[in-house]
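Hi V.,

You were right to ask for the full record rather than a summary. Here it is.
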Amino acid sequence: METLKTPEQVEAMMNYLAQPDRKPVTYMYKPPGGAPVRTWHVAKYPVTIRNARPVADELSLDRQGMLLVRAWSAAVDFYDDDQVRRAYYPEVERLVKQVAGAARVMAFDHNVRCGAMAKRGEKGVREPVKYAHNDYTIKSGPQRVRDLLPAEAGELLKRRFAVINVWRPIRGPVEEMPLAVCDAGSIAPSDLVPTDLRYPDRTGEVYSLAYNPAHRWLYVPAMRPEEALLLKCYDSAEDGRARFSAHGAFEDPTSPLNAAPRESIEVRTLVFFAS
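Predicted structure:
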């Protein structure tokens, strides 16, 4: 990776889960009976977020749960869902298959994020997620396989599989709300708090992250569209490799006052291994 003139680290505030008295719930639709959208609260903690560029060659999906790669995309309009599924999903599948050494990869979902566009009500655009979390849990990882591949799930779940996200800027360099990743090796099992995501027709589950001063945070300053971050959100292997990482957007204190709003796309993939 090209070395850019960027800070060695930044001191910033990270939003963590404030320890709840019951299982946290987030409604992904208008809650019934006037219930709050979230039954939980965040707590802000100061953290040091290191520049990952100088150590990019040392990063591993199986150690830190993250990897920075250079990966150009031929997709033209990331705001066109049909084009993303038709042209970009196959790119992502090839990338993850090659990098992870997988036998099969299936891209199944994506989100496009931009705070300014989301506030204007642009269709299909969401705000960056500004709290520490992980997209899948020990329960919801296998369930996603059952939901998406019901006829094959029984056999597929007998072998190792993972959920890996591919995150990239749509435009760059990213100046505002960059993505921070928590090194999987610094996360204790008790830091990962199962949190329900309730939809009208189903309930999903993610991990919210509880604060631990041992957490090691990394980010890639000034990311460009030809770069992508691979994030491991789940791994069924229990052999000592990273199983869960965590991530979240943060307010970068070094952002210029006239920083362009961050525009990004993340694609989720199911990753199946031969053994």
